Amino acid sequence: MIQTSKETDEKIAGARRAAKSSDEALVPTEFWCLHGAVGAASDWRALGKGLAEIGASTRAVDLWRFLQCESVSMPDFGKRLNADSQGEVSRGQKRILFGYSMGGRLALHALLEKGPWDAAVIISANPGLRDPAEISARRASDTVWATQALTLAWGDFLQKWNSQPILGGAMRDEREDKKLIQRRREIARSFVDWSVTNQQPLWNRLPEIQIPTLWIAGETDTKYRAIAEEAVALLPNATLAIAPNAGHRVPWENEAWLLGAIEEWRGFKRNLGDFVSSRER
Predict the structure, then answer these.
(1) Global confidence as pTM
(2) Of 140, 190, 159, which is closest to residue 34 (Cα–Cα)?
(3) Hey, which of 60, 64, 97, 274 would disulfide with 44, CB 3.0 to 4.6 Å?
(4) What is the pLDDT of residues 181-229, one digit of tens each?
(5) So where are the chain's domains?
(6) What's the topology of domain 2-129+201-280?
(7) Contact present, 86 and 114 (Cβ < 8 Å)
(8) 3-state secondary structure of 29
């Protein structure tokens, strides 16, 4: 199911009509993919193959390299990612920033730093906590996770992480999990530097994001579905999509639906004029 904010209903309907009457191919695009907490760039391997089948290329970003030498705040991360992307030769005419969970929060910071992004896909992300009690509880929880990432046997740490009800179990094979141990120091640091408790709430700044944005949540992930609905109402050019038969980990719980949703949303942008970011206007 794809829903759109009121502000974009007429624009999307017009784009659909234009697409049907045009022989123009979809605009070539490149997705820059940001993984979640305790994740890896390799998590996007399968999705990258699927995106290639619909004519899009991908760059899976290793978020841990940003924390390799020093602490990096989320706003500073946004500036550094934007600088990296501006220094790369794009393999597509348009760049889409794609972030899941923690990667989605980091993506929002990059978007607010006015990077070279033409559109964005945000999945299962939180623009910020507002309740003091929730902030306190989450800070205590993240402190424990940071400690355990450094001190527990790696397999035990991953088992505890994946057993959280919101995550629903392991998502990658054992070989990839073992590789991730090389990043345990950076993962521990992320529970501090990139904790949502160290993030200034971005709710009031969401209207600054003018580019087309697809915001996705799983239908059984009630908390993040409500967040997605509230966020889309604040964004001036947003589409809300609710993934059926999926919880928090939409890209791995219902990949086929996700690819279809992206292709349909991207199809609205066949006309180059409808897929030009605010920085180009």
Answers:
(1) 0.86
(2) 190
(3) 60
(4) 999 999 999 999 999 999 999 999 999 999 999 999 999 999 999 999 9
(5) 2-129+201-280
(6) Rossmann fold (3.40.50)
(7) no
(8) strand
